[in-house]
């Protein structure tokens, strides 16, 4: 892509304005000591998958001028709950009986892998809650690993089959506030949403609460992967359950 970028710059007459430097950010040298602006599309699925944020923070700490800006400069992770009986039955419960064979061991594996897909907003059962806010201009690398509580309140009587995570990003340092959301109520993006299926089918009534916590950390063997631990509980009129589940984004 760097080679193609050089060709595009030359073809359009910007060789005296734009310099393309090919290489890893951690390894290259710049022809200037400091920069005024760092722009990077570092966001992955679930915001943090592939761990590209560390590269942006490295560049910020090494090159950004004291009054410089990072764009986008704010990011936030959000959580909601959905009804999704049809997909769960077709893709996960399917492994309980595959043409008469018990392949439920694969079901356990399928449950551990978050699904990246587009969620219909009509499937949303609860409110949406902010989990984590990140200020890219100030945060440190370790801030991308965290444990946060959540409390999702049902907006109707329904079943909950999965929790759904999505993120928003903002460009607050521009002359005009800009940004976008990857949530199910916003225009679809290639990041879609991240769906974490629950082992339990949670029956919830309007006004009842599904509460718990989510722990997010880079995988120790491969820091580009993410390990997610989800603890959830409900003590409702029709359902009482408490469980811990582990997910791995690979």
From TrEMBL:
Keywords: Methyltransferase, S-adenosyl-L-methionine, Transferase. Transmembrane segments: none annotated. Pfam families: PRMT_C. PANTHER family: PROTEIN ARGININE N-METHYLTRANSFERASE (PTHR11006), PROTEIN ARGININE N-METHYLTRANSFERASE 3 (PTHR11006:SF53). The keyword Glycoprotein does not apply. It comes from the Eukaryota. The keyword DNA repair does not apply. GO terms for cellular component: nucleus. Residues 73-236 form the Protein arginine N-methyltransferase domain. Gene3D superfamilies: Hnrnp arginine n-methyltransferase1, Vaccinia Virus protein VP39. This is Protein arginine N-methyltransferase domain-containing protein. It comes from Aegilops tauschii subsp. strangulata. InterPro entries: Arg_MeTrfase, PRMT_dom, SAM-dependent_MTases_sf. PROSITE patterns: SAM_MT_PRMT. One of its GO terms (molecular function) is protein-arginine N-methyltransferase activity. GO terms for biological process: methylation.
